[in-house]
Structures are given as C-alpha cells and as structure tokens.
Amino acid sequence: MSFREEHELHKRRFGRNLGLGLVLVGFVALIFGLTVVKVGEDGFSMQPQTQGEVQD
Amino acid sequence: MSDASLNTAAPRTDEAGFGDFFALLKPRVMTLVVFTALVGLLAAPVSVHPVVGFAAILFIAVGGGASGALNMWWDADIDRVMKRTRNRPIPAGKVTGDEAFAFGMTLAGFAVVMLALATNFVAAALLAFTIFFYVVIYSMWLKRWTPQNIVIGGAAGAFPPMIGWAAATGTVSVESVLMFALIFMWTPPHFWALALFMRSDYHEAGVPMLTVTHGRRATRVHILVYTVLLAALAVGTGFTAVGGPVYLAVAVVLNALFLLGALRIWRRDETIAEADDYRTEKKFFRLSLYYLFAHFGAIALEATLAPMGLGGW
C-alpha cells in the first residue's frame, strides 16, 4: 500500500486550494487593472500640484 | 488515566470544498444582485471605465454574497427544517456555523473597503448598509417576528441598482430610488406566491410568513394589492429619465400579465389550488422572475441606446 494514498478528502482539499489560488490571481490582476486605470485618469498626478505655492 | 481518543479519531472526511463555500454566497440571488447593480451602473448618466465598472459590480456581488453567508449562519436552525433549504452547506454538515460566520464577515469587510477604493464612499456606505439591513434588520429581527418580514426585508434586495448608480455618480437620485422601489414592491408578491405553494415549509420552521399568521386567503388579497401598486409604479417609471418607449412597452405588457396572474390567484381558493398542484401560483412565481429581468433589461437597453440618440424620451 502506498504511503501517499489519495483520499477523496485530498481531492476536495486540492480543489479548494486551486479555487482559492485562482481567486487570488484574479484579484491581483483586478487590482493591477484598477491601478492602471486610476493612474491614467485625468487629474492624477505623482507630483503635488501646489508644490510651487508651498515653496513660496 | 488514559487518553485513548488522542490521535485515534478518523480524519475529517466532511471537510468543505470550494463549491461549498461558493454555495454560501447564494449564487442564484447573486445573479439578481449582479444584474440589477449592472443596470444601475449603466443607467447612470456618467460614463465609467469598464475596469472600474467590473470591479464595482464584483465587489457589490461579493458584498451580497457575504450577506447571504451571514444569513445562512444565522438561519441554520430553520434551514434544517425547511425542505427548500436543508441542502444548504451548514444544515448539510459541509460547513460549520463558525466557518460561515468568519467567511461572511471577512468578505463583507473586504467588499465594502474595496468598493470604497475602487469607486466612492457613497457606494461603499450603501453596500455596508445593505449588508447590515439584510443580516441584522431582516434575518435577525424581522424574519422571525413579523409577517411583514418580506415587505420590509425586501429593501435589502432592492439596494443593488442604487449602489450601482452611486458607484458611477457618487450620489443617490430620483432615478436610483425608482429602481429601488421597483424591486421593493416586486418582492412581496414574488415571495408570497412562493409561500403559497411551499405550503408547510415556513409553518414547520415557525417563520411568521403571511400565509401562517393571516391565512392563505389574506395572502392572496395581499398579492393582488401589491401587484396593483407595483404595476402603477412600474408603468409610471416608464415616463421618467430611466424609462423610454422600449421600457414602457415592456412594462405595459408584463404588468398586464402580472395583474392577470394576481387576479387569478385572488379568485382561487385552496381547494382549487390543491386540485391542480398550485399551477397558477407557480406560473405567477415564474413570471415574476421574468418580470424583473425584463424591466431591468429594458432600463439597460434604454441606457445603451441613449448615446445613439434612440433611448429615453
């Protein structure tokens, strides 16, 4: 008998881990997409717009 | 002293799978949430980037799913009794109540925060309120206390188009309130028709459904009254900014059919209904599903046609 006998439980656990993995990958992709869109929006600036006023 | 039980227990074979956790989110209810929220988003007079729109709908759906999981956690005792719900993950023994609670709370917090980050605080606040309303006001308080549970609790299911609209505009307006009202008024006749033919379920579970507290005759009268009010609202919406000729045509036809169905239900008594296994009630229930999808589909169509100068008035 093999020590690593496949139990139905292992299949279910694998299915759950795979599902969760795919959800996480999807979430990362979504956050990346959102970031690209938000950064590309009009009015978004990496530099403070009031920089000049602050220096004065 | 011996501890014979130590490590001798058989491995737990009933561990939940991915599908069991997904079932906690009430996927069928989620379909309605996704669809109506999407219509709310599309009908808004503001263009939303598709990625932001997709994220908004996803987080609204996750929030709706979270409230479904929390509802199943709270209602596990009555779900065990009712035929319709006894195969849900908790009564079926696949997921524990604690797991469902943790899952629901985590997803609820996640969905609200993510919606706020992806769109705006108004939409996120509406989503948080919807989850609170469904879990605390409806599930914990109203459902087991008053036969008006479905009427007031229906508000929870009516919020998604409002959240979709708010995700796009950042505000609540007359149009979004009208879409809310449409689902709010539709919910009672939809569920009361179900209660009529799911005869013993609510009774055995001790849920004070109108059929249990006021009798089946009163339920039939209530269905008719609510359908008349709903028809006036649904057709009236056709003359507002979210309506248009397509919507109005759909509303007139479907409300005529819906009124006819309600009238038939009102005219029947239990003897006739039992004789044909609640055929009219089941037909009305099925029609109610098409009714809502068609109305919101028409609103979406009007919004899609508008940029081409065809939709709306």
Would you give an account of this structure?
The complex is a heterodimer of chains A (56) and B (313). Chain A has 56 residues and is mainly alpha-helical. Chain A has one domain. Helix content of chain A is 68%, strand content 0%. Chain A contains 2 helices and no strands. The longest helix of chain A is centred in the middle third of the chain and has 33 residues, at 8-40. The relative contact order of chain A is 0.06. Residues 52-56 of chain A have low confidence and may be disordered. By secondary structure, chain B is mainly α. Chain B has 2 domains: 18-172, Tetracycline Repressor, domain 2, CATH 1.10.357.140; 174-313. Chain B has helices at residues 18-23, 27-43, 50-74, 76-81, 97-118, 121-142, 149-158, 160-169, 174-197, 199-205, 210-213, 215-237, 245-267, 270-275, 279-305. The longest helix of chain B has 27 residues, at 279-305. Chain B starts with 17 loop residues before the first helix and ends in an 8-residue tail after the last helix. Mean pLDDT of chain B is 90; it is low at 1-12. Chain A binds chain B through residues 7-9, 12-13, 15-16, 18-20, 30, 33-34, 36-38, 41, and chain B through 11-13, 15-19, 21-22, 49, 51-52, 54-55, 58, 117-118.
